[in-house]
Specification:
Helix content: 25-40%
Distance between the termini: 28 Å
Order of helices and strands: EHEEHEEHEEHE
Structural class: alpha+beta
Strand order of the largest sheet: 2-3-1-4
Length: 170
């Protein structure tokens, strides 16, 4: 079986997810992981599927991008198999006035502590900027990391919380 990474981006419109999912189902592709969002009127989807050859999926996606409104890419990837989480799951939330470098500074603190961002979303509403990230932290590092995150947040003029993730919600 082939494992493929597929991205679809472009101007949002109703039916993109259905179009892509139906096309892949007709080809016999099983969607294993996916994420989709709308960012200021633009659609962005990334998914991993197992099934047909990359060339077959690329050819099938051509009609979706024929009008130039969507860009679809297909890439064969090497399956990693099931892996246990590398650390303890936490949720990081940052909020405050919008300014350059919030994501860069906060994720650098996480990376320097050996933390891995597994999901991240940001939203700007007026002048309020909000970051929510799911992260995996090395065991026993959360307390010390919370202090470093708080210091960085203070420098940026934003608020930050780091809390254990509820495994029932993830």
């Amino acid at each position: 079986m082939n494992e493929l990474a597929i991205t679809v981006i472009g101007r949002d419109r109703p039916g993109i997810v259905a179009d892509v999912a139906e096309l892949l189902a007709r080809l016999g592709a099983n969607l294993t992981d996916s994420t989709m969002t709308r960012l200021r009127g633009h659609f962005a989807m990334t998914l991993i599927c197992v099934g047909p050859a990359a060339a077959d999926v690329e050819a099938a996606l051509v009609p979706l991008s024929a009008d130039g409104q969507l860009l679809a890419t297909v890439r064969a990837v090497t399956p990693d198999g099931e892996t246990a989480p590398a650390g303890e799951p936490y949720v990081l939330a940052v909020h405050g006035a919008d300014r350059m470098g919030i994501v860069a500074a906060m994720t650098r603190v996480l990376a320097d502590a050996g933390g891995n961002v597994t999901d991240l979303s940001t939203r700007l509403t007026g002048s309020l900027y909000v970051v929510v990230a799911e992260v995996e932290l090395p065991p026993g590092t959360a307390d010390g990391l919370a202090g470093r995150l708080a210091a960085t947040a203070e420098e940026l003029g934003v608020g930050v919380t780091l809390r254990p993730a509820d495994p029932d919600l993830l």
